[in-house]
Amino acid sequence: MNEGGRNPAETVVVVGLHELVKSPATLLEAFWVAASVSWAEALAAVARHGGNREQLSRSLGAAAYKAPARLAYCDDVIDAVKAWREVGGRSVLVGDTDKQTTVRIADHIGLFDEAHGDVALAAGGANPELEARYGAGGYSTIVPAGAAAGGWPGPSPESVRAQVQPDALGATLRLLRPHQWLKNLLVFVPMLAAHELTRAALWPSILAFIAFSLIASGTYVLNDLLDLNADRAHPRKRNRPLASGAISVRRGTLLVPVLAAAGMGTALLADPALLGMLLLYAALTTAYSFRLKRLVVIDICVLAVLYTLRIIGGSAATGIPSSIWLSAFSIFFFFSLAAVKRQAELVDGIARGTIRAHGRGYQVDDLAIVNNIVAAAGMVSVLVLALYVNSEPVKVLYSVPEVLWGVCLVLLFWNSRIAILTQRGQMHDDPLVFAARDKVSLACGAVVAALALAGTWI
Questions:
Q1: Count of CB atoms within 10 A of residue 439's CB?
Q2: Which of 289, 313, 284 is nearest to 212 (CA)?
Q3: What CA–CA distance (Å, rounded) separates 323 from 428?
Q4: How many structural domains comprise the chain?
Q5: The predicted structure's pLDDT at residue 337
Q6: What is the residue range of 70's domain?
Q7: End of a domain among 157, 185, 213?
Q8: Which of 25, 124, 287, 453 is 20 to 30 A from 141, comparing alpha carbons?
Q9: What's the mean pLDDT when you consider all of the chain?
Q10: How is the beta sheet containing 90-94 ordered, strand by strand?
Q11: pTM of the entire structure?
Q12: What whole-number distance in Å separates Cα of residue 139 and Cα of residue 150?
């Protein structure tokens, strides 16, 4: 952007919407970006324009533009506009979309003095509408080099292919997130809580673990497809296989149905009741990926339910019912851990100077309330455990139930420590994965196991 020495106050810099927003590399990627905003509109675009690549590109772009926070922006263009404004220049955003869409994006960026729709910029040449508004020579444009008129920003998706690294086993495994399978160990909880350590209970629990892991990996891939832009703007998530380009969007898209089918088939080997629970889990997880994760508090509730469904799934596979005590403890405990995830994101947002958690419904000003949720739900889970220690079922299962009061103390310590570490910005995105790698958390788990064994066999 070279203004040839002109006075910034006399020259308006006009930025084309197609230059500001990064282009998806392929039509398939454009579909997932649009689907992250509106699944219905993305499918409708494919149904209407599936045979016309240019029209499909334009329709998918229109759907994606409705959610400015989920678009990927060109940092070099934004930096150039910032530099121009710092020396007193004015900037304008124009696009060939409707004015409302252009204004919405301009407001999200917060760098433009004006925004106008229905203005098509072309590479080279004067624009009569801009000359009428700002005068001949009164403006300078940043235009998309070779952009297809009316298409997505930058080079048209049909003419560009993603430059990705060769698909490798390591990248595919990272995409499946096997470390997250640790959460599926919860399917063994009903067997352990009821002291049913038998082969008849173990095999269905193993099948349930495999089934949940396959379905969970499928939903993680789906979530990454929908979060392509949000992940690319995140300091750590930008290194995920899909966001970084290590795995192609096409490969990721194919993995979703394959993993889902494998998970459902494994569930049938255990028990039809497990399949029903897995279908509920898959439906709720999919709804979370598409919409619920962006709804304040509802997202935390859904995550708590998803954790608890793993325990109920273990009950469905083995036929060992989950007690009301176990269900109540799970809801409050995992509600606290789900809130920790949001607390970590908000603390990270404050450190990076952002106002909102990327791709979420929270603002950094909500951090104090989220902190209270973490502490309150964690303490209530300990209270439920304390009441359980004094209940009749415990006297049947444990010869010395008083030893279990030590578990309450350990849990009080662990919950409090997790909250403090998160507030300090030291928390992994998922607290359970963090706990599996944290020496203090592992020591707490060992103490809890020792106390449970002591209460049983002393």
A1: 7
A2: 313
A3: 31
A4: 2
A5: 93
A6: 8-157
A7: 157
A8: 25
A9: 83
A10: 114-116, 90-94, 12-16, 139-142
A11: 0.74
A12: 22
